[in-house]
Amino acid sequence: MSQTIPSAAPGTVAPAGTPKKAALASFLGSAVEYYDFFIFGSAAALIFPHVFFPNADANAAIMSFATFGFAYIARPVGAVVLGHFGDRVGRRKVLMFTLVLMGASTFLIGCLPDFNTVGWWAPALLVLARLCQGLSAAGEQAGASSMTLEHAPDNQRSFFTSWTLTGTQGGQILAALVFIPVLALPDEVKYGIGWRIPFWLSAVVVLIAFFIRRTLHEPPAFEAAQKSAQIAKLPVADLLKAHWRDVLRVICCAFIAAVSTVFGTLAISYAKTVAGVDGTITLWLVVGANLVALGTQPLFGKLADRIGRKPVYIYGALSSAALAPLFLLSLESGNVPLMFLAAIAFFSCGYAASNAVWPSFYAEMFSTKVRFSGLAIGTQLGFLMAGFAPAIVAAMGGIKPGGWVQISIFTAVICVIAAVSALTAKETFKVPTKELGLK
């Protein structure tokens, strides 16, 4: 049985504007983390098969996509470690660490030698750097979502926490915009120094986010728990004792994240390989859909504060399953306006609903003393599906003519699993923050 944790220490009041500052810090931190993450995804689809696996022939794409997935192996490990410290020493300290680790890992990827220089050491070093990215990402969204939720007013938790995931759209937009001019370079430049520049530029974005995030305070609920000695000594043990069903539920719900990798990584490769769509066009699809999602996700967050987390989340999951084949078929049509409309419908008006709501939906299943750990471990185990989705579908023949069928079936299965899991959860949008996760 979890202990009741006060929402704030007696007389403690969050500084004015703190919910907005927490949301902004989460937005910028997620933008940095996922700029770096999506830069890797774009490169895995368009660059790395030539740079790190030139002798792999037909298997180059599968091997390149596998490096993308390696980060998702590290993420469950990072979730346990960073979740422990996030619940023990504070959300803010862990979030500063994840920001620096992601920035350093991404910068070093841009410095790696290619296959022609050091042979198989090149992809080995790439995997090592990717593992560090995964360790960082394991704590970023869980920490940012926990801190923003705990700073937010009870009746606006979904809206404020939606900005954490809206930051990921900002990161993906930046990644795509940076890669578009890289793809226009001559091959000798593009596969030489050109692809490295986006990775080096991450250092600038990290510095900006670092100085903003360092001014943020710990949430009153966490500070109150520290003062009253209600911090768990072993958060994972308490989590598995009191919330193991919620952890399993979050794992299955988190399968929905594979929709993002299908859209942002797998579809790029499919469009280029099968339909002959120029890589620049597919990246503009990513930019356009994510720009629209910057507006739709906060609206979905507001809606979830009015009608509940479950209906909005389930709508997002099921609409993603229904719209995936339409998006993939639009890529084969050669009709660019149709591609943009299908991309916006699929990603910005479908998947964005689940994406906006899950930070509050998952986090509200756990009490303050184990929220960071529960959110981190549950999501990162579920995100394994997202990490290896491109490699799995590619191995199934999804990057071949007619592969839209395999991709669509895969997407539908994971979306239905997520929707059914969400149905089993309790609705929490009317529960006060201090009572969340208490049995």
From TrEMBL:
Membrane-related topology note: Multi-pass membrane protein
Compartment(s) of residence: Cell membrane
Gene Ontology annotations for the cellular component aspect, listed alphabetically: plasma membrane
Listed PROSITE patterns: MFS
Any one GO MF annotation of this record: transmembrane transporter activity
CDD domains per record: MFS_ShiA_like
The organism's place on the tree of life at top rank: Bacteria
Organism of origin: Arthrobacter globiformis (strain ATCC 8010 / DSM 20124 / JCM 1332 / NBRC 12137 / NCIMB 8907 / NRRL B-2979 / 168)
Gene3D superfamilies for the chain: MFS general substrate transporter like domains
The protein, known as: Putative major facilitator superfamily transporter
Membrane-spanning residues: 34-53, 59-82, 94-112, 193-212, 247-269, 281-300, 312-331, 337-358, 370-397, 403-425
Membrane keyword on record: yes
Pfam families xref list: Sugar_tr (PF00083)
Domain Major facilitator superfamily (MFS) profile: 22-430
Protein keywords: Cell membrane, Membrane, Transmembrane, Transmembrane helix, Transport
Principal location listed in the UniProt entry: membrane
